[in-house]
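> example.struct
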């Protein structure tokens, strides 16, 4: 079986003025992450952006992100899903270039024999996530035929809990429905974001990885309230004959060889 490198960037939270909060410049953090990939000579087969890409769904942020991604070297297949901070219509039109509409953004991409199914777990106007019947049916139809090298599923809201109580309250509401669709399938990994801290677990025996964020990190020692602290990271997911693994890659202005 072939080996694949998947790089996951999550919770970018781009803003029009480049500032999210005192000391947090989300665009700079994203640029640092993309420069790290270039300097490290990492050439991902798949580049995943797992939601909350624009902090308030501003079209200009998606235009900016699309331009930045066009400069990513190496010809990676780029897969994007919306999060609770994104606007579906603006996301679809300005980032994907796929017309208008506010229906769920569900897409499938291929890299050789590896299939990536990107699912929209966002619920307009809400912070929690749900995979609606249309989305679950889309996933079931895709998984009905196995892929040569298996499948990776991407969504924004984790089907796992968080030690931070406010984040646990706005996770994926119907994780059991996702578990049922995944049962017996060729899915090797489920990738999510949303929490701003890394987590690993399983859903019905399928490995689940929750990526840290590039914008800022969540302090997991603060369990009763969500406390944001400086910090930026991405994930690398290695899919190999010898096993699959997910790794946190911290990012800073001086990172890279």
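> example.seq
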């Amino acid at each position: 079986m072939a080996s694949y490198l998947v790089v996951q960037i999550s919770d970018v939270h781009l803003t029009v003025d480049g500032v999210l909060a005192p000391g947090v410049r989300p665009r700079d953090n994203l640029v640092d992450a993309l420069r790290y990939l270039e300097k490290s000579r990492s050439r991902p087969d798949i580049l995943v952006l797992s939601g909350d890409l624009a902090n308030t769904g501003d079209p200009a942020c998606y235009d900016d992100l699309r331009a930045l991604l066009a400069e990513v070297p190496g010809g990676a297949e780029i897969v994007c899903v919306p999060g609770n901070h994104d606007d579906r219509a603006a996301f679809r039109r300005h980032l994907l270039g796929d017309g208008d509409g506010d229906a769920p953004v569900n897409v499938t991409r291929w890299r050789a024999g590896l299939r990536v199914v990107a699912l929209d777990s966002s619920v307009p106007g809400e912070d929690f996530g749900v995979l609606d019947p249309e989305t679950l049916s889309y996933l079931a139809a895709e998984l009905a035929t196995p892929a040569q090298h298996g499948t990776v599923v991407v969504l924004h809201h984790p089907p796992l809990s968080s030690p931070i109580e406010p984040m646990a309250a706005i996770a994926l509401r119907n994780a059991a429905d996702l578990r049922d669709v995944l049962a017996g399938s060729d899915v090797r990994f489920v990738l999510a974001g949303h929490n701003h801290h890394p987590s690993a677990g399983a859903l019905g025996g399928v490995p689940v990885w929750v990526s840290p964020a590039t914008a800022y990190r969540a302090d997991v020692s603060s369990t009763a309230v969500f406390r944001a602290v400086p910090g930026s990271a991405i994930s690398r997911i290695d899919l190999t004959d010898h096993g699959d693994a997910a790794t946190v890659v911290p990012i800073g202005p001086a990172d890279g060889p």
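> remarks
The chain is about 25% helix and 25% strand.
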